[in-house]
Structures are given as structure tokens and as C-alpha cells.
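ok so heres the complex, two chains, lmk if somethin looks off
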Amino acid sequence: MLHLILFSVFAVIAVAGALNLLIQRHPISSALSLIVVMGSLAVEYLLLGAEFVAAIQVIIYAGAIMVLFVFVIMLLNAGVEARTKGSKVALILGFPAMLAGGLLVAWVLVRAPNVGSVNVGAMYGPPKAIGWLLFHDFLLPFEVTSVLVLIAILGSVVLASPVRSRFSRPQPEAEPHPAFKVAAGTEAAAQEQTISARRSS
Amino acid sequence: MVPLHYYLVLSAILFACGVTGFLIKRNIITIFMSIELMLNAVNLSFVAFAAHWQVLSGQVFVFFVMVVAAAETAVGLAIIIAVYRTRETLNVDQVNLLKL
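and the predicted structre for the whole thing:
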């Protein structure tokens, strides 16, 4: 009973955070409500007995990824998003289609034979067992994952580096933005120059 | 004891919120956050099924999903910064060319 109450409370918090992400118009508010969703999902993982997943949910998602999001929002000085008029076809067809899809999913879930209930509270997933599984059965995917992370690091450094010549467009008459004048140099110096240029303008 | 389909329904609601945000939002960073929300919803159903069948592979899959999400976030935010450098906007309606 206690588990059901805890599940309901944190499920309501998660759904409220997700809806708040949709309603808010400023990206920083959306980011903060996404952090709320991730924190309550971490509690749901703890209720399911997945303590390792709960820990890395807090550390990686709420800690690393969302901090990266907040950094980028602050860096780009993102303001309130503009509203544009959607098409009428989306309004007329979208809501019935969404309703039909939701009803289909609910029907499948209700009609599913004997799905049973989750045995909550049994801490069955110790990190030791997960580590053994990760380095024994899933060793090859783990190594491929490390290559993927390496490629992602290289790609993000290349994409975000402020090299003028790669992104230049033939617009000789336009005075380039002060942020564009940053020549090739160290990334930290370039970012400092960008920030100071923004502040002075 | 919480029935399994409570978790699945919660996961479905969160996923639907993510899809809706992906479709209706106009800020490119918020669209990215909606993608993260969808990944989180899928993670919840992974963990719920892992707890139901008492198999740890589901949790290992959640680990892999998180790694892919982290890599995707790093590359995506770098692309957003590059787009902002050339166009000075974050509105996806004004970004209609792949060419930078």
C-alpha cells in the first residue's frame, strides 16, 4: 500500500513536470521541469528495486546532461520562444488521431492477459551483478559504446569549434557579428571573447 | 505491489508528452529536451519489465540508452551552437536549410 502511494505521488509529480515542460515558454523553465521529471523517475526506479539505475539517473541525466542543457541555454541567451500559427489540418486531424492512438494503447494494456504486478521493494539488482553482466555478457556492446562516446566527443568539438571559414557564407557586404570575428585559437579564449563581445554590444 | 501496467501507463503518458513537445515546440533546445523526455519514458518501461521478469538485462539496456542519450545530447547541442552562430535564431521555423 505504501508503495502504491509513493508510486502515485511521484507519478503525479513526473506527469506534472512533463506537462509543465510543454506549457512553459522559456527554455530554462522547461529545463528545470525536466529535472523534476528525472528526479521523480529516479524515485520510481528505486521503488522498482533498481538502485544502480536510480543512481546513474541522478548522476548522468540530472547531473551531467541537464547541466549541459542549462549551459547551452545560458550561452546562447535563449529567450521566450515565439509562437507560430499551426496548420488547421493538424488541429482537425491531430486530436482525433491522438485520441485513437491513446485508446488503442490503453485497450492493448487492459486486454493483455495476466501481466501481473511488480514485486516492489525487493532490491534484486545489486551493482555487482550488473557490472558482471556488463563486462561478461555485454562486453562487445560496451566496447562499441566507448567508441561511440569517442566519436561523439570528437564530433561535438569539431561542430562547436568557432572556425570562421567552414561556416562562411558569401556575404561580403554584411558586417559580421562580433562573435564571428573569433579566429582559430583555443576554445576557452574564443568563448571568453564571444561572451565579452555579447556583453559590450 | 504495484501492477505492471501502472508503470507502462506512466511511461506511455510521459512518452506522449515528449512526442507532443517535439511537435508543438518551436525552440530547438526545448525540442531536444522533449527527445530526452521520450528516452526517459522508454527507460522506465525497460526497468519495469526488468523488475517484472527478474532479469537484469533490462537495467543494462537502460545503461546503454543513457550512454547513447549522452552522446546524442553532446552532438546535438554542438549542432545547435553551430546553427545559432550562422543564423542567430533558435526558432525552428526559421531554420529551413540544412546547409550552414
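quick notes: Residues 1-81 of chain A form a domain with the Four Helix Bundle (Hemerythrin (Met), subunit A) fold (CATH 1.20.120.1200). thats all i got rn
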